Amino acid sequence: MMLLLSIAAATELTVWHSYRGAERAAFEAQLSRFDEERPDLTIQPLAVPNDSYSTKLESAIPRGNGPDAFVFAHERVGDWKAKGLIAPVEVEEGHHPATVSAVTWEDETWAVPLAAKCLALFYNPELIAAPPETTDQLLSVETDAQFPIAWQATDGYYNVAWLHGYGGGIFQDGRVQLDSPENREGMAFVMELAQRGPQDPTGALVTQLFNDGQAAMAINGPWFIGELNVPFEVAPLPTVSATGQPAAPFLTVDGVFVSAHGTNQALAQELAGWLGREGAEHRALVGRQLVSWLDAYDNPEVANDRVLNAFRDQLDSSVPMPTQPEMAATWEPMARAWRRVMRGAHEPDTALAAAQTEFSIVTRPPPAEANPVPYLVLMGLVATGLLGWFARAVYRARRQISAWRFAYAYVAPASIAMTALVVTPFVVGSAVSLFAHHQGDFTFVGLTHYADILFARDWPVTSPQSFWYTLVVTVLWTVSNLALHVTLGVALAMLLREPWVRLRGVFRVLLILPWAIPNYITALIWKGMFHYQFGAINGVLGWLGVEPVSWFGSFSTSFAANLATNTWLGFPFMMVVTLGALQSIPRDLEQAAEVDGASGWQRFRHITLPLLKPALLPAVVLGSVWTFNMFNIIYLVSGGEPDGSTEILISEAYRWAFTRQHQYGYAAAYAVLIFFVLLAYSRFGNRVTGQKVL
Amino acid sequence: MATLKLNALRKAYGDTQVLHRVDLDVADGEFLVLVGPSGCGKSTLLRCIAGLEEITAGDLHIGARRVNDVAPRDRDVAMVFQSYALYPHMTVRQNMEFGLKVRKTPPAEIRERVTAAAEMLGLTPLLDRLPKAMSGGQRQRVAMGRAIVRRASVFLFDEPLSNLDAALRTQMRVELKRLHRKLDATIVYVTHDQVEALTLADRILVLNAGVVQQVGTPQELFDTPANRFVAGFIGSPAMNFLERDDHTLGVRPNDVLFGGELSARVDVVEHLGWECHVHLSLSSGESITARWETAEVGRLVAGQELTVGWGTTHRFERETGARL
Q1: Strands (DSSP E) found in A259-403
Q2: What's the CATH code of the domain at B292?
Q3: ipTM exceeding cut-off 0.95 for this assembly
Q4: Would you call B88 an interface residue with chain A, using a CB distance cutoff of 8 Å?
Q5: Which of residues 163 through 202 in chain B touch A, CB cutoff 8 A?
Q6: In the prediction, which pLDDT does B182 show?
Q7: Cα distance between residue A166 and residue A189, in whole Å
Q8: CB contact under 8 A, B102 and A607
Q9: What is the per-residue pLDDT across A256-300, written as a single tens digit (0 to 9) for each?
Q10: Residue B324 within a domain
Q11: How far is CA A273 from CA A94, A110, A114, A295, in A?
Q12: Number of domains chain A is built from
């Protein structure tokens, strides 16, 4: 009874985190330890998957469904403080100063640091005797491996260490300054270093090369350790010879935050402080974390861990990831700049200048607030008009409705569901397009977004980011895809229909392979095949004696890569539709045409094709609508490269919503425009075909 | 010269022999009918001539040309299908023009030929209609029209009347005969209906299970059938067959004489107006059918006893069925 009462009386603290593997085990072990030491408290941990973690936090906390405390990287501090999601936290002495400054914002600390992550230099001692200590040494390392060094050279996060080493960086004097002379020098150095590494390196490629002994060094973070199966050592990044400054990577600090909406904030604070201090040694040893609590490094076991200590040394020359809200808007422009210079399309000065311009466009202040009254009046009128028209139609047909009332009743659940699931989001989405979203606030701006988009106020019309350019690309994308899908699908159906009983195996493979594999996977596989250095396509070309093509380096080849992938995915649909339609064409007709004197091609053109039209037409319309909105392929294969020129409307809308400061209103306007384009297309399509297809 | 010559022609699908050795000479302007029960291979033979089936062995000559390896479009044949095979998305005029258009015939000539053929078949008011807006008889005529405009050497008809009702069929038979005379064309015509065969043909080829039974004029087939199969196939009602010790006796119903040496009892009488088909039981137990004019025999009733005799008889070997 007492036990039950005490359990019932125990305060519950929910703690969220997104750790996995060893880190998770260590962290949750510490939570259990705290739980045991404090019987008046029950700790309720929750491991949240990484990708949706921040969205979950931001939506749950204000509603009161969030945790009392949660672990997250420090970067969102400014953003969350502005949104009122977190409470200030006291951080005691004993944490590494870099980690403390990471969680500081506007002169207050907002999380207790737990551990930090940063990049360092990994090297294979069997391939390199001693790690280079300066960049000059780095550039002249001799090794038997194919690549002296491998790292994700097109990712800004991995390169910023060098920019810091040259005295540059993202922010200067509190403002975003991408286009500085120091950054230009740093970028030039990185370009030179990249010559010594593989082209288009992805994370997977870096891991593979290092594990195969093809890369003697790699730049990566502590997460790399778990993927390695060769001997390795870690050293701090070299010092920049030109400036004498060490290369300083970004520091990401995991800290325990306290929710501002929680009901047990004092207890949560206590838990946070305890975790940062008491759990440090265990987390360092079991979780292999680079803990911020400095005393933990006095532990003999920790002191003997060379890797941990190498990272600890790197900690002294690291720059906490800036927490200003504008930071999030620098990633895309910088990534683009890095890709441009790696491709050889730009020199550092023009690339960085373009990046600065793109950054300023994306972070432009939101449009002025518009007067909602005219809109409300208009909408009121329209709504009244619609209701009146609807009421009148119902009144007119009342006898018929009464006669058919059971039919209407049967249809009602489905209609309601359709309205709720289709009409409501559409209406809400359209409404959102009339607002501008800026750092959590929605302002009513009326049709400003539409004007900005259609009149190309943000980007010049010819820029790849402009609506019109993207529209042209999207139309080109749709037309070329459908042409290929139909041609290939019909051709294969014609080939397969006669001996299809015998060649059933072939037919099935052709059909199932593109369809059964999720198109996400297919897209990634094709992207890998188009890799400049290690892709299968260039491999085959090389074997045929053709120069390897940099597929994502120019618009036409990048577009072709997307086209090839989507055609692979799209032709089975047309093939199946055609095969079905072919069954319904009597054999006699083609034989009569044969006797009449028609050649194979004439038979196909005058007899078969016209009779296929009724079946193909809806398929083509459907296929074109799907292709118009085929986000997966564009996003996953070319990613819009080069420079966003292969983006289509839907992927561009995505970027506005999710990578460019969450400009939901702008993206919603894009989406509404896409809807109108497709609506016009379907109406036009009906007229052209003469059939009421849609 | 639109002659047709089949020389030792054979057709097999894999190991299955469908046509065993066909020898045939069709003269210029002849109306030859291929007749036989369902599945005997007559349509296959027709399609071999058209080129829609490949000939396994033997030769096929159209005119002086050996056409075994010639594509259907180059064989100068025109075909009317059982299902008419009209192009459903084209009007009557377009259907008839199609064969000429694909051969790049000059437009003036196309128009002239189509108009002439339409007139010949009474299709002029229907020229701009689609097949689905026409009756069976009209469609059949369009199919024929499509063949006629081609002015081919040989016309092939694959059971063109079997989808029509009885009255229309009779009417079309007469029209076909008229057409043959007007066109003076060589026609190969497939049917399973022996009445059509007898009325239309200059000569008939009877097929059974891929084996040629007899080739000859209708009268020859009727008067001197080469074997039991032909005797039983041609003529309606069918010939009576009576087994004797060393041969089979065949007597046509109209060769059964009213009054003779054999006693018989009436089983069933079918009254057809001016004639009746009387099914009789002989004293030997065998059943026969007789065909008598009602005026001659009067009103017969079942069970009535009478006598019959034989007129012209045919004798066939018991094992092979060959004529003796």
Answers
A1: 290-291, 319-320
A2: 2.40.50.100
A3: no
A4: yes
A5: none
A6: 86
A7: 9
A8: no
A9: 999 998 888 888 999 999 988 988 888 888 888 888 898 888 888
A10: no
A11: 11, 12, 9, 15
A12: 3
